[in-house]
Amino acid sequence: MSNKTLYKGFTMIDGTGKEPVSNAWFLVEGKKITKIGQGDDLPSAEDINIVDLDDKVVMPGLINSHVHITMEPVGDPFSLLMSESLAKTALRGAANLRKHLLSGTTYFRDLGAPGGVDLALRDAVKEGLIEGPEFLAASKVVTMTGGHGWPMGREADGVDETRKAAREQLKEGADLIKIMATGGVMTQGVEPGSPQLSKEEMESAIIEAHKAGKKTASHAQGTEGIKNAILAGIDSIEHGIFLDDEVIQLMVEKGVYLVPTLVAPYFIVENGVEAGIPKDAVDKSEMVMGSHMESFRKAYEAGVKIAMGTDAGTPFNLHDGAPYELKLMVDCGMTPMESLVSSTKTSAELLGIDEEYGTLEEGKFADFLVLDESPLDNLDTLFNINSVYKLGQLVK
Hints:
Shape: globular
CATH topology of the largest domain: TIM Barrel
Oligomer: single chain
Order of helices and strands: EEEEEEHHEHEEEHEHEHEHEHHHHEEE
Helix content: 25-40%
Number of helices: 11
CATH class of the largest domain: Alpha Beta
Strand content: 15-25%
CATH superfamily of the largest domain: Metal-dependent hydrolases
Number of domains: 2
């Protein structure tokens, strides 16, 4: 059977932000797109399979920059994670991988898991043992003793310890280093706005990651902690709930990405204590949600680079729910096209995979979605995807 397939007759949203192209076609050979064109002047050969996508819309697969693949989006995910075996956690992760893939996420970044489970899942996908999106894995988060995320973290205090903690994750095979700059919503007894690891502690870990050619991400919600992370050399700020003008300007100047995860507190507030979410998490989410959305608006208007991430795995933040984040980004000022670019091209750039992923261009991997209508007119169409292709293969 031929490994060449011609897809034709569709409207193409290529992920770059350019206007959609009608009556488009592309040729996939093996895992990659080799030719792209428009109109009826099609490549011809006896060994080409033809798939007619007349009246469909094709766009790149979604790239989710903030996922916790081993966490179950129940009321209290941390308690569940701490109570089960690593074997059960791994099986849960494998099930969640399939949810992401079938809902249109073809690549993602995992930002913290216990016991190296995310590294094993990543390798199992690459080896074809299980089905799921490819992804980058951070392994254990680097956090202060008792700091945010400590149940799945490497607790470290002082410059030498954070340096060693980063080196340990790199030794295990982590693709990036995740560092906790502030408190957070889901860890009991910590405040989202309060700084945790110091600038100097973060800097030693960041230097180790960068020496190894790896990127860094920081859970950072409060203004002082966000500033500390940026001055320490961080590559992306996750959440960014309390952004002031100075911090936003620093992000623009230094090219630091924002991964807002607007849906994370949104779903905690929407579901509340009655759904089994700890009261302190609900109270903290109610406190931060308005500031979170306002910070996003200010960062977007100032030109901060924004990559889509959901924080999937937090309470009721489902592993097949990425389109909810796009809708909230549009509610906070983005155009639908900008939300799509944020979820494809910009995420690929943040992850450092943009030479081969993130846009529909010749020479890139054939990760794409087939939709029944344009998401530019109706983002809800992303909840009901017609077909998902990963590395040139139909997976749904």
